Amino acid sequence: MTFALSFYTLAVVKALVLLGILLITLVYIQWVERKLIAHIQGRWGPNRVGPHGLLQPIADSLKLLTKEDLTPPHVHKLIFVMAPFLAVSLALISIAVIPFGGEVEVFGVRTTLQLTDLNIGLLFIFAVTSLGVYGIALGGWASNNKYSLFGALRSSAQMLSYELSLSLGVVGVLLLSGSLSLRRIVDSQAGYYFGFLPRWNVFHGPLPQLVGFLVYLTAAFAETNRVPFDLPEAETELVAGFHTEYSSMKFALFFMAEYANMITVACLATVLFFGGWHAPLPESWGIQYAPLVVGALVAGLLLYHSQGAFAGKQRRSMQVFGVVAALIGAAFLLQPVRVLFSPLFWFAAKSGFFLFLYIWVRGTLPRFRYDQLMGFGWKVLFPVGVANVLVTALMVALFG
Amino acid sequence: MPDVTFLDANELVLNMGPQHPSTHGVLRVILKLDGEKVLGCECVIGYLHRGVEKIAENRTWMQFAPYVDRMDYVAAVSNGLGYCLAVEKLMSVEAPPRAQAVRVILTELNRITSHLLWLGTHALDIGAITPVFYCFREREEALKIFENYCGARLTTHAFRIGGLQYETYDTFEKEVLAFCDMFPAKVDEYEELLTGNRIWLGRTRGVGILTAEDCKDFGVTGPVLRASGVEWDLRKAQPYSGYEKYDFAIPTGRNGDTFDRYIVRIQEMRQSLRIIRQAVEGLPTGPIMGKVPKVMKPPVGECYVSIEAPKGELGYFVVSDNSTQPYRVRVRPPSFVNLQALDRMCRGSLIADVVAIIGTIDIVLGEVDR
Questions:
Q1: Among A317, B161, B209, B367, which is most buried by a count of CB atoms within 10 Å?
Q2: Secondary structure (DSSP) of B179-201
């Protein structure tokens, strides 16, 4: 039985589902970050609101929503209000063209796990994210505050410079796959060399894009204003950088924009270099049972630790989460679940790793200085990116 | 030369502080900027002025001792030691050997806690958010020893004029030695995070250079002076409280930049451990209090006593008119004197460097303003 779903209904349903998932991820990536950083630093992190502090993001959102929305008298009102909306909407739009999985059939409706497949998907993402700098630049300028202005100036210069390297890092991938459509790029990475090595672009012949990936990754850190390139909001120098004057929900929007950008570049790294939703090993190696194993491991760990002496108040919640993890793992025994969720599992695992990398780096490295940042971008990253493009082009021309 | 003054129209004055995340309290710095480049800076101090020196004239000699702890509250034990030594010199009494050794142990532990706080916040200023938690973790262990000894953690008031108020507690030596055993590995840990880090090197090498000549001109002392290559440490140059008995080195730098000051302070922590270990192992027995009358009336006279506090030369100039209260107490705080060099160090650097430089001078505003 198949439902005849009009194109528009389907698009709206998919958009709502995607938005819901994205917003929940946005909120909870902050919880994950706070927990991880806390454990890196030998602290507990949020653990008061709900079990393991899991309700903390909700409490924070509510707090930010109900705070007084202060507009200082010395700001340029229209632009001051517009800037955060600009930043967040542009950050959220770019997720629309990212493919999370192949074609699936849910309740008899066949569709792709992607909001829309633009044939210039990659260009679209770059266009939209580079517009995102306007949110920051205008916000900093409209605040009419010297610290904000410095933050805005820094971020415009930084994002413009690193965008070049970001694009250069990706050109190699374009040469290999010959398409700007993200779906086509992922499709070109299907299959395995020698029966086990995935044909992901980081391993892809004739020239593995390892250098391109490193250039992309570094530039992506700068593009999203994360440590060690977090100069626009360098807290210890510029108080809070471009969002010094922002409060309440407007501040939260900037915050959301930053994390949405993080998620976008992490997903993009997965799509461009790590084969999107393709598993790292062929099915003949039994890789399709990996989610099962992960679920069992998580369940085992949680249940084991819930019996430990230090579990304390968390004992009950750890047991519940352990059982849930076991059930999720067990669900992957069912064929339809596996077909539908395996690609999503791999996509989430890869993107999650990059997000983890962001947080890990934040807990480890100091911050660059402005001149060093520019020097690094133009003198190191840019030439390496260009060289990578040239060599890749040559290899593709000779052996591709 | 053509007249290029019209270019000055781009000069930007940026007010940093007194409420700013990295001015370490309530320091206010007025920066003159050309873009991100610093043309000059001016410190505005006094936001934490409490008139400590004036208070001294209305308290008895003994009563004033707790007040000095509130100047450099990060290194309260050193402050107390300096004041006690000054009054003791005025009264011509000396603390017994056991008291002297305990004083050395606590003062050196305090040097470590002070340097740890500096290291953590300095790294935080430069953008590394993790070392500060590691530093506080170990600082806690040292503070526990203070707490067990005298009941207070920060403003300890650990010493009395003439010796010590309290005998050490039962497990004192064991705990201090345990700290000495635990700590070197932790210092390695901090160094692992920072010393070889390319970004850290980039942010500290060649930043805020102060030559030995500059240091002497400004009267800069302590680790900042030693990082410029001058081997000057009052613990060696004019030993007090029995420092001549201990074997330790004076770490020095060569370039006088922020990185050298970082290395010097790291090395100083290791040297402090050496001193503590020697002092604990050779801890003499005997009385802990010298012959001091209940009502103190030092003879008419004046004296200046200075010690090597964690931040530099901490001096006390005390004047007595043979009454129960000091006639005048003047403090030479190292932070205040070292802060003078800020303008010299900042000129020509970038905004981000100013933050690093304020951190590297290691100021405590309680001491700057008094």
A1: B367
A2: HHHHHHHHHHHHHHHHTT-HHHH
> What are the tens digits of pLDDT across the range A54-74?
888 889 888 888 888 888 888
> Could you tell me the pLDDT band of residue A5, with boundaries at 50, 70 and 90?
low
DSSP state, B289? B
Taken in order B94, B95, B97, B103, the sign of the CA dihedral is: negative
Decide: residue B281, CB within 10 A, 0-12 exposed, 13-18 middle, 19+ buried: exposed
Tell the residue number behind the tokens 């440590």, with chain if given: A227
* Cβ contact, residue pair B20, A230, below 8 Å: no
**How far is it, in rounded angstroms, from Cα B49 to Cα A74?**
32
**Do the Cβ atoms of B194 and A366 come within 8 Å?**
yes
Phi, psi of B185, deg, nearest 5: -65, -35
pLDDT of residue B340: 87
Burial of residue A277, with CB atoms counted within 10 A of its CB: 0-12 exposed, 13-18 middle, 19 or more buried: buried
> What is the architecture of the domain spanning B53-338+350-369?
Orthogonal Bundle (1.10)
Q: Measured between CB atoms, does A368 come within 8 Å of chain B? A: yes
Smallest Cα distance from A45 to chain B, Å: 13
SS3 track for A282-304: CHHHCHHHHHHHHHHHHHHHHHH
Bridge partners for A381 per DSSP:
none
**What is chain B's alpha carbon radius of gyration, rounded to the nearest angstrom?**
21
- Confidence bin at A322 (pLDDT 50/70/90): confident
In this predicted structure, the answer to whether residue A49 has a pLDDT above a threshold of 80 is: yes
CA A274/CA A209 separation, integer angstroms: 10
SS3 content of chain B, % helix, strand, coil (to 5): 50, 15, 35
C-alpha distances (whole Å) from A128 to each of A85, A163, A184, A306 are: 14, 12, 20, 46
Residues B101 and B243: their CA atoms lie apart, in Å, by 9
Tell me how close the Cα of A370 comes to any Cα of chain B, in angstroms: 8
User: What are the sequence ranges of the domains in chain B?
Assistant: 53-338+350-369
CA distance B80 to B150: 13
Question: Which structure tokens are listed for B140?
Answer: 């806690």
| A239–chain B Cβ distance below 8 A for any pair | yes
Q: State the 10-residue block means of pLDDT for chain B, 370 residues long.
A: 53 80 81 82 87 89 89 88 90 89 91 91 86 90 90 86 86 90 90 86 86 88 89 88 88 88 91 91 86 86 90 91 89 90 86 86 86
First to last CA, chain A: 45
Q: What is the pLDDT of residues A108-157, one digit of tens each?
A: 677 777 777 778 888 888 888 888 888 888 888 888 888 888 888 888 88
Could you give the CA distance from residue B14 to residue B65 in angstroms, rounded to a whole number? 40
pLDDT given at position B5: 52
Cβ <8 Å between A362 and B129: yes
Token pair recorded at residue B122: 């300095």
Contacts of B137 in chain A (CB under 8 A): 42
Residue of chain B with shortest Cα separation from A244: B20
Rounded CA gap, B232 and B238, in Å? Answer: 10
Tell me: pLDDT of A1 over 60. Answer: no
How many whole angstroms separate alpha carbon B101 and alpha carbon B242? Answer: 7
- Amino acid in position B211: T
Question: A58, A27 in Cβ contact below 8 A?
Answer: yes
Name the token pair of B33.
Answer: 């900027």
Angstrom distance (rounded) from CA B5 to CA B196? 43
- A400 pLDDT band, cuts 50/70/90, is low
Task: Report the pLDDT value the prediction gives residue A103, as an integer from 0 to 100.
Answer: 74
Candidates A33, A148, A225, A367: best to mutate against B (most CBs of B within 10 A) is: A367
Q: What is the pLDDT of residues A223-234, one digit of tens each?
A: 887 777 777 666
